């Protein structure tokens, strides 16, 4: 009997992810503009930087990334397990429950209802809803794995399983709090303990949402788009256990030069350096999978999106451990260099991976074999690359300059530069950051337009060869694949 897979829920998650990607990045672009032109907050308490910044991070991380991971994980676990979902009704409860979380975030954060914790700003009633929805998602995913019709569990499902379990554990522990009223609560932890628990969550939210989850997604789609098997399945398992073993300990590198005990700081530094091994091993594995089909790589921009994502992953996992070393941390901490590092990973690794999946996956979900315009895919690719380069390089230069100016002293011990001097220095780099971000967002808009045209055309038109389609539509002056 042929297995019938549930694709409708997957479509909903993927399209919702696409919408949140645009919304979250538009808010980020608005914030970048405010940093150079503060007047753009229009003297409003609701759209000033402090309130919109968590809306930007929540929109991108919990809107764009979590939706695409939920959608692709439910697709991949069905296909690789040769079975349908554990419970279709539960899948819709997860979908609508998660969208309710995002809508509540959209309402409460601009109103100033926040716990003030990084990546955990939402207040306690929403935290409870997140935990409930996440447990339902876990039951749905692992229930589907349990009913699989094959003995083997594909490696992508290992990464998805790890990201589901670890995020649930660290989110719940970090958000243990004492409610004061419906819109305010206080953490049960205090002082350095609160900081340690927060960065156990904060860094591993990056490590298991933006890294392990995306890796799981890519371990399925990179072989698909490359039309080749994973270069080394054994290396992918080593990659998995290396990340699980080292990443969960690295969060305290955010607390170097703080009141946290030195041994805890040193543990975070050592584990950060050890992360080089599994991270670069995984990047090498994906890179070699893509390079195993060099002919297709020469002209397939979806493969090039994946290739770029892997290279940015290697760059970010080189830079991150370096920034954990005390000497580098002394210069970089609290500067724009950290923002440049985060966004070179978020835009280069996470977003480029997401774009590649959108381009490859969305047409196939709707029965199309190719995109409406290959030329627009190419334009998006180069706009994204130029945007990331301008963005990251500007913040690297601005951040290193900031760190130097803050540390520079006269012989008598007085500061050589005032804080205003450092702000004046970094101002032009804030403008460059906005320009780079604008180019990146323009690329996203082009992608959405291209995907819209792809899905709006009849299947028969898109499944023709580009040359045939050009000849058939030449009398109307239209060419569907440019």
Automatic annotation (TrEMBL):
What's the family? Belongs to the heme-copper respiratory oxidase family.
Q: Which InterPro entries match?
A: Cyt_c_oxase-like_su1_dom (IPR023616), Cyt_c_oxase-like_su1_sf (IPR036927), Cyt_C_Oxase_1 (IPR000883), Cyt_c_Oxase_su1_BS (IPR023615), Cyt_c_oxidase_cbb3_su1 (IPR004677)
Species: Vibrio algivorus
This protein's source sits in the domain of life called Bacteria
Mind telling me what this protein is named?
cytochrome-c oxidase
Which compartments does it reside in?
Cell membrane
Q: Which cofactor does it need?
A: Cu(2+); heme b
Which PANTHER family does the entry mention?
A: CYTOCHROME C OXIDASE SUBUNIT 1, CYTOCHROME C OXIDASE SUBUNIT 1 HOMOLOG, BACTEROID
Q: Could you tell me which SUPFAM superfamilies the record lists for this protein?
A: Cytochrome c oxidase subunit I-like (SSF81442)
The answer to whether the entry has keyword Cell membrane is yes
Carries keyword Transport? yes
The Cytochrome oxidase subunit I profile domain covers: 1-458
Pathway(s) this gene product operates in, as recorded in its UniProt entry: Energy metabolism; oxidative phosphorylation
Give the record's keywords alphabetically.
Answer: Cell membrane, Copper, Electron transport, Heme, Iron, Membrane, Metal-binding, Respiratory chain, Translocase, Transmembrane, Transmembrane helix, Transport
NCBIfam families per record: ccoN
Specify where it is mainly localized.
membrane
Q: Where is the signal peptide?
A: none
Which Pfam family would be a valid example here? Answer: COX1
Its UniProt entry gives the catalysed reaction(s) as:
4 Fe(II)-[cytochrome c] + O2 + 8 H(+)(in) = 4 Fe(III)-[cytochrome c] + 2 H2O + 4 H(+)(out)
Q: EC number(s) of the enzyme?
A: 7.1.1.9
């Amino acid at each position: 009997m042929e297995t019938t897979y549930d694709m409708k829920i997957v479509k909903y998650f993927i399209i919702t992810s696409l919408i949140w990607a645009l919304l979250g990045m538009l808010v980020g672009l608005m914030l970048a503009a405010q940093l150079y032109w503060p007047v753009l907050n229009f003297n409003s308490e609701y759209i000033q930087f402090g309130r919109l910044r968590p809306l930007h991070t929540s929109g991108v991380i919990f809107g764009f990334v979590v939706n695409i991971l939920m959608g692709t994980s439910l697709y991949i676990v069905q296909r690789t397990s040769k079975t349908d979902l554990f419970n279709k009704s539960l899948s819709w409860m997860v979908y609508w429950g998660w969208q309710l979380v995002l809508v509540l975030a959209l309402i409460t954060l601009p109103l100033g209802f926040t716990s003030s914790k990084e990546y955990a700003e939402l207040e306690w009633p929403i935290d409870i809803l997140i935990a409930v929805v996440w447990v339902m998602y876990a039951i749905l995913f692992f229930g589907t794995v349990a009913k699989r019709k094959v003995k083997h569990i594909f490696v992508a499902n290992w990464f998805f399983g790890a990201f589901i379990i670890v995020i649930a554990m660290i989110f719940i522990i970090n958000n243990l709090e004492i409610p004061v009223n419906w819109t305010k609560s206080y953490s049960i932890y205090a002082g350095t303990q609160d900081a340690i628990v927060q960065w156990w969550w904060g860094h591993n939210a990056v490590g298991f949402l933006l890294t392990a989850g995306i890796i799981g997604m890519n371990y399925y789609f990179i072989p698909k788009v490359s039309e080749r098997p994973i270069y080394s399945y054994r290396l992918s398992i080593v990659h998995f256990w290396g990340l699980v073993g080292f990443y969960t300990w690295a969060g305290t590198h955010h607390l170097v030069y703080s009141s946290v005990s030195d041994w805890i700081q040193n543990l975070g530094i050592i584990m950060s350096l050890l992360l080089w091994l599994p991270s670069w091993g995984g990047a090498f594995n994906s890179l070699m999978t893509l390079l195993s089909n060099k002919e297709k790589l020469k002209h397939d921009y979806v493969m090039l999106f994946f290739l770029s994502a892997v290279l940015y992953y290697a760059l970010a996992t080189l830079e991150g451990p370096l920034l954990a070393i005390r000497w580098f941390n002394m210069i970089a901490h609290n500067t724009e260099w950290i923002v440049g590092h985060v966004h070179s990973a978020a835009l280069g690794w996470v977003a480029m991976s997401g774009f590649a999946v959108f381009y490859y996956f969305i047409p196939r979900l709707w029965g199309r074999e190719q995109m409406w315009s290959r030329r627009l895919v190419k334009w998006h690719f180069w706009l994204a690359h130029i945007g990331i380069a301008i963005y990251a390089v500007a913040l690297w230069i601005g951040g290193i300059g900031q760190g130097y100016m803050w540390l520079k002293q006269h012989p008598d011990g007085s500061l050589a530069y005032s804080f205003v001097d450092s702000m004046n220095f970094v101002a032009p780099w804030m403008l460059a950051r906005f320009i780079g971000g604008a180019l990146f967002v323009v690329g996203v808009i082009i992608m959405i337009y291209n995907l819209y045209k792809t899905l709006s055309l009849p299947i028969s038109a898109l499944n023709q060869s580009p040359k045939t389609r050009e000849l058939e539509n030449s009398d109307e002056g239209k060419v569907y694949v440019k």
